[in-house]
Design goal:
With 180 residues, this protein is mainly α. It contains 8 helices and no strands. It has helices at residues 3-26, 32-48, 58-81, 83-95, 105-113, 116-126, 132-139, 143-164. Helix 6 crosses helix 8.
C-alpha cells in the first residue's frame, strides 16, 4: 500500500470515528484540554500504525482500545504529579462543601465505591452503548468474560447504590404486623 492509500484510509477512519472517540475520552477526562491531547495522541498512534487498523467497524473498536491505553498512561502520570494536590482538594471540599447535596450524590458515591475495572465496564456498556462483543474487542478479552464481568459489575453497582441511597429514599422494611 502506498502513502496516498494510507492517507486516504486514515482520513476515512478519522471522519467515521472522531466524534465517538472524542465522546469516549471526554467522559473520562477531568478537562477538555486533557481530552484534546489524548484524542490527538490516539490519532497520531493510528497514523503511525495505519496498516494495523482493522477494516470496517472494527477500526472504531481498535481506536477505543488505543484511547483506553493512552488514558491509562495519562492517569498514571497525572496521579504521580498530583498526589499532594488531591489531598489538598479533598481537604478543601470537606471544609467548604456545599450544604445542599445533589439528588444524585448517592449514584456518584456508588460508582466511586466500584473498582476502576467495574466502572470502565459499566461505562463502555452504558455511555458508549457497546455490546459485550464490542467491549471484548476493546478490552482484549473474550465475549463470555465480558458478559460475566459485566453481570458481576452490575450486581456490585446495585449493592453499592443500595448502600449509598439516602435513608429517606430507601423502602422501609415491613414489620411483622404489616406483613400479615
Amino acid at each position: 500500500m502506498d502513502e496516498t492509500d494510507d492517507q486516504s484510509r486514515f482520513e476515512t477512519v478519522y471522519r467515521r470515528t472522531y466524534e465517538q472517540i472524542l465522546g469516549y475520552v471526554m467522559r473520562r477526562c477531568s478537562s477538555a484540554e486533557d481530552a484534546a491531547d489524548i484524542v490527538a495522541e490516539t490519532y497520531v498512534t493510528a497514523w503511525r500504525r495505519v496498516s494495523e487498523i482493522p477494516r470496517g467497524d472494527a477500526a472504531r473498536l481498535w481506536l477505543y482500545g488505543v484511547a483506553r491505553r493512552i488514558l491509562a498512561n495519562h492517569r498514571r502520570g497525572e496521579r504521580r504529579r498530583e498526589t499532594g494536590h488531591a489531598e489538598l482538594t479533598a481537604e478543601t471540599r470537606r471544609r467548604y462543601a456545599m450544604s445542599a447535596p445533589s439528588r444524585y450524590d448517592h449514584v456518584d458515591q456508588a460508582m466511586n465505591a466500584l473498582s476502576g475495572d467495574d466502572r470502565e465496564l459499566l461505562a463502555l456498556s452504558v455511555w458508549e452503548e457497546l455490546d459485550p462483543g464490542e467491549i471484548a474487542e476493546v478490552l482484549g478479552c473474550s465475549r463470555n468474560a465480558v458478559r460475566i464481568r459485566l453481570h458481576r459489575a452490575r450486581r456490585r453497582f446495585a449493592r453499592a447504590l443500595e448502600a449509598a441511597r439516602p435513608a429517606a429514599v430507601r423502602p422501609r422494611p415491613l414489620t411483622n404486623e404489616e406483613s400479615r
